[in-house]
Amino acid sequence: MEAKTPNPMKEYIPRLLTPPNESFFLLGPRGTGKSTWLAHAYPEARRIDLLLPEEERKYLAAPERLREIVRSPQSKTIILDEIQRVPGLLPVIHSLIEEGHPVQFIMTGSSARKLRREIGNLLGGRALLRLMPPFFAAELGRSFQLEKALKAGLIPMVWQSEDPWEKILNYVGVYLREEVIAEGLVRQAGDFARFLEISSFSHGQLLNVNDIAREAQVKRTTVDNYLQILEDLLISFRLPVFTRRAKRILVSHPKFYYFDTGVYRSLRPKGPMDQEAELESPALEGLLAQHLRSWVQAQREPHQFCFWRTKSGVEVDFVIYGPKGFWSIEIKRGRDVHPADLKGLKSFCEEYPEAKPLFLYLGKHRLVKDKILCMPLEEFLLQLRPDQFL
């Protein structure tokens, strides 16, 4: 059975993803363009779409049927879409890889919930992991619009739709219906929907599970479970505190982000008392966060992605530490650079003189103040690619 193919009317936007020659997992939230990219990168591959009920039933009943396809001389590359639907296929694939069959398996998934142990086994069996994020601004190039990205996000299926805002409003509903409720991951759909709305206030903020539980009127253990579901479905992440060689007393709570700014904006309640600044500042920080996280995930060598905040409230929004460099990054929505804006970066550099400080803002000029490089956010995003940072 042939898998779904991309809409031929849509322009294909090449992605900054370099595939390995070996078998690999390709994980990413719904709508990030996994199938579209694979259709262009592997046009001759045999495709098995496990979202199709007949395909799911076929391989649930007998996962070993995959061996019959592998024996076909035409099957040099086999793509299994949404492999988490039939996790029983993974031991078969592991066995085939270990037996040395000259077939490349590409396994896509939009949920890591059922794949954790199997991914570990297959990675040990030389299957690799790649992640498909929303668009990088650099992938869009001249068509990138900062204002549009801050409101609708950069999920490809949203960005390329005729009405991006309407599309992103429906996006979470699709997840809620197809991934959470249909899979029986939560008992009370109303509680989970209320949790999603309340957690949007934590986007870009320190995560306080007790506060969310109180506002959502559920137990703390329920919120812990809901947060894990969001992370398993790849639609949120937590940012830890950078504690390496710490000299000051730091906060202990992580920060919370939805994986895409548009998801945050669609969930965040709005009313007469909500000023645009209250919505835009977390959106701005989240847009940068998703780009930096995508850059970190694309690196072959591990890099830490963190933030830094002292108990007294001195903070740096993002810290990246790894083989390619050590950066401290602050972002503000202003169009000018004021001395107070650089306080956190200066404090961080006093403790970590090895770090390269970077200040991003909505102005139009690149400049240096107090030995800190200040760049327009849009300029930075457009040049950020997996193969380069600054």
Describe the 3D structure.
- The protein is an alpha/beta fold and about 400 residues long.
- The protein has two domains: about 25-130, Rossmann fold; about 140-385, no CATH class.
- About 40% of the residues lie in helices and about 15% in strands.
- The protein has helices spanning about 35-40, 55-60, 65-70, 90-100, 115-125, 135-140, 145-150, 155-160, 165-180, 190-200, 210-215, 220-230, 260-265, 275-300, 345-350, 375-385; strands at about 25, 45-50, 75-80, 105-110, 130, 205, 235-240, 255-260, 305-310, 315-320, 325-330, 355-360, 365-370, 370-375.
- The N and C termini lie far apart (about 45 Å).
- Residues about 1-5 have low confidence and may be disordered.
Indicate the topology.
Blueprint lengths: L23 E4 L6 H8 L4 E4 L3 H9 L4 H5 L6 E5 L7 H10 L5 E6 L6 H9 L3 E4 L5 H4 L5 H7 L3 H4 L4 H18 L7 H11 L5 E2 L2 H8 L3 H13 L3 E4 L15 E4 L2 H7 L8 H23 L5 E6 L5 E8 L2 E7 L11 H9 L4 E6 L5 E3 L2 E5 H7 L7
Parallel strand pairs: 1-4, 1-5, 2-3, 3-4, 11-12, 12-14
Antiparallel strand pairs: 6-8, 7-8, 9-10, 10-11, 13-14
Helix pairs in contact: 4-5, 7-13, 9-13, 10-11, 11-12, 13-14
